[in-house]
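Lab notebook, design round three. We kept the backbone fixed and only want residue identities now. Task for the bench partner: fill in a sequence for the structure below.
Input structure tokens:
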């Protein structure tokens, strides 16, 4: 099945959940999910760390300075050799510097798998393996699963944008907590990545 057929099936499935989903998907239009499948897991994790606890605009600004500093996305060996002061200057906090250099070290050791190895691992195995890295939680791994490995049944249930999107979709007073949203999201399987994409786009 090609991507267009898959997204059509996903839309049809999600629109049948209820009238709210039908209105959302009709209003947003076709799913235009655009992963960066050419990236290695190492790069995807470092990029995801840049956005932890920040707005997209702030994360973009850090990555822009980061890439300008190195001239391209650095290899793990380059990132390990980079000085603390240089990485602080591009906008990373001390905690994030420790995290991204830990990712680089783990890429060299093989704890962070290369793309071929990652493609052969399940979502659960990748999450269990990578959350052992200091500073890497489930959300960070889920961003890699969605945007790099193109896994189509991922719901980052503690993502602020997704929880807020669901709150607005359902006109709730407060956004659901992670466990509640994860339970609700079981009904969206096997298209939870597409559901997440639409929830990120619920009108404010």
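Proposed sequence:
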């Amino acid at each position: 099945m090609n991507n267009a057929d898959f997204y059509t099936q996903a839309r049809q499935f999600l629109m049948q959940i209820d009238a709210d989903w039908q209105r959302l998907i009709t209003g947003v239009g076709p799913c235009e999910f655009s992963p960066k499948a050419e990236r290695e897991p190492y790069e995807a994790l470092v990029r995801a760390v840049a956005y932890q606890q920040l707005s997209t605009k702030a994360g973009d600004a850090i990555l822009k300075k980061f890439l300008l500093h190195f001239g391209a996305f650095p290899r793990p060996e380059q990132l390990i050799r980079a000085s603390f002061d240089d990485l602080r200057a591009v906008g990373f906090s001390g905690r994030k510097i420790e995290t991204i250099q830990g990712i680089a070290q783990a890429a060299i050791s093989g704890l962070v798998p290369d793309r071929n190895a990652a493609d052969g691992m399940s979502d659960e195995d990748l999450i269990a393996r990578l959350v052992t890295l200091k500073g890497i939680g489930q959300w960070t791994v889920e961003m890699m699963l969605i945007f790099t490995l193109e896994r189509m049944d991922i719901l980052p249930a503690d993502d602020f944008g997704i929880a807020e999107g669901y709150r607005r979709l359902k006109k709730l007073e407060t956004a659901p907590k992670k466990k509640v949203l994860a339970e609700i999201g079981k009904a969206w399987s096997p298209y939870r990545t597409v559901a997440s994409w639409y929830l990120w786009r619920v009108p404010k």
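Keep this in mind before ordering anything: The chain has two domains: 10-35+154-199, 41-147.
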